[in-house]
Design brief:
With 287 residues, this protein is mainly α. It folds into two domains: 61 residues; 217 residues, Four Helix Bundle (Hemerythrin (Met), subunit A). It is built from seven helices and two strands. The protein has a two-stranded antiparallel sheet. Helix 4 runs antiparallel to helix 5, helix 4 packs antiparallel against helix 7 and helix 6 runs antiparallel to helix 7. The longest helix has 40 residues. The radius of gyration is 23 Å and the shape is globular. It starts with a strand and ends with a helix. Its EC number is 7.1.1.9. One of its GO terms (biological process) is aerobic electron transport chain. Belongs to the cytochrome c oxidase subunit 3 family. It is an enzyme of class 7 (translocase).
Length: 287
């Protein structure tokens, strides 16, 4: 209901349904990790539930926004909410980068006899620390046969993602200036670039498993490689879907030069994903 200058959303069933669907998906994911393919139906059902709730919940938000129910206070609430969400994503990836740096800076040198905990070298006295770790200390674990050159597919994907941030910024400027044809064109280009990134990463994953021996079982290098690039790839897929929805809304005449926070929020998310990839390119592929 709207009263005065403060908007109080009506009671909604979507938060509790989102929690239940997300919980089901996590239970299914755990079942897949423990029991294998037998847990796939539960995980898939949970995932479909999450997608359905998101679609219906966002539909209601769009209807409320188009109905003129939101005021400046609600706009600030959305901005704060999106800002804290992106901060949570920063901490999410910070944990994974932290794991990578910990292994490279502390754990491997300790296993090679260096540092305050160099006594760990007693576990595998013949181990020599190096990164990328092609020869894990435990001989029962096979490391990757070789690693990717950063100047081939990873560089192409970097150029694609950086370019997509530029095209998205141009689209945003067009929206703010009321040039909707420019917004439609450059946002379409951004979505296509996102799809190109996803396709190339799929090719890279195939090459990793089929030719490079980089798998989730290939020691700490394989585990951190897929942990970081996999979660980032998931964020690119989500971001591309969000931008595609924004594109549909632009074609339907939604947003104005002064009121388009849905578009802005999508742009914030995409630029964040772009910055994370630059970190990945430098610390997973180059250094």
């Amino acid at each position: 209901m709207s009263g005065g200058s403060y908007y109080v959303p009506e009671s909604s069933k979507w938060p509790i349904l989102a929690s239940l669907a997300l919980g089901l998906m996590m239970i299914g994911t755990g079942m897949v990790l423990v029991y294998g393919a037998s847990g796939m139906p539960v995980m898939a059902l949970g995932l479909l539930g999450v997608l359905a709730v998101m679609a219906l919940w966002f539909r209601d938000v769009v209807i409320e926004s188009r109905g003129g129910l939101y005021d400046d206070q609600m706009d600030r609430s959305f901005r704060w909410g999106m800002g804290w969400f992106i901060f949570s994503e920063v901490m999410f990836f910070a944990a994974f980068f932290g794991a990578l740096f910990y292994v490279r800076t502390f754990a491997l040198p300790w296993l090679d006899g260096e540092g305050a905990k160099g006594v760990a070298a007693l576990l595998w006295p013949d181990f020599t620390a190096s990164w990328p770790l092609l020869n894990p200390p435990d001989p029962s674990i096979s490391g990757p046969r070789e690693t990717f050159s950063p100047w081939h597919l990873p560089l192409v994907n970097t150029l694609i993602l950086v370019s997509s941030s530029i095209t998205l910024t141009i689209a945003h400027e067009g929206l703010k200036e009321g040039v909707r044809a420019s917004t439609r064109f450059w946002l379409t280009v951004t979505v296509l670039l996102g799809l190109c990134f996803i396709t190339i990463q799929g090719v890279e994953y195939y090459e990793a498993y089929a030719h490079y021996g980089i798998t989730l079982q290939a020691g700490i290098y394989g585990a951190t490689f897929f942990l970081l690039t996999g979660f980032h790839g998931l964020h690119v897929i989500i971001g591309t879907i969000i931008l595609a929805v924004m594109l549909v809304r632009v074609f339907r005449g939604h947003f104005t030069a002064d009121s388009h926070f849905g578009f802005e929020a999508a742009a914030w998310y995409w630029h964040f994903v772009d910055v994370v990839w630059i970190g990945l390119f430098l610390f997973v592929y180059v250094f």
